[in-house]
Amino acid sequence: MRTINLMTDVPADHQVRITLPNDVPVGPAEMVIVVASRATTEFTLGDLARSTFFGMWHDRTDIADSVEFARRLRAEAWSRAL
To answer: Taking the CA atoms of the chain, what radius of gyration do you get in angstroms?
Structure first.
């Protein structure tokens, strides 16, 4: 089995035409369509500024660079997940 990822925009008529690579054999094939769900709520910069996350490390004296601190937290979390 082989997976081929093709990205497209679905038009208003909901019809999508695809062209497969030449090395795909002729005959029966199973196709799976994956549609990403859209976010139900769009947040603005103002929403972020008013959130509890904005400035949450403001009083921390042990964090010299909050961007680097967040990057390190993400890296640690990702390495644990593997």
So the answer is: 22
Q: Kindly list the distances between the CA atom of residue 10 and the CA atoms of 36, 49, 61, in Å, as whole numbers in the listed order.
A: 12, 34, 50
User: Which pair of structure tokens corresponds to residue 29?
Assistant: 């094939």
Q: Using 50, 70 and 90 to split pLDDT, how confident is the model at 81?
A: low
Residue 20 CA to its chain's centroid (Å): 25
DSSP secondary-structure letter at 51? Answer: S
The token pair that represents 68 in the structure block: 């680097």
Give CA–CA dist 71/34, Å, rounded: 30
Predicted model pTM: 0.38
Cβ contacts of 66 within 8 Å, gap of 6 or more:
57
The rounded distance, in Å, linking the Cα atoms of 72 and 82 is: 16
In degrees, rounded to 5, the angle at the alpha carbon of residue 74 between the alpha carbons of residues 71 and 54 is 70
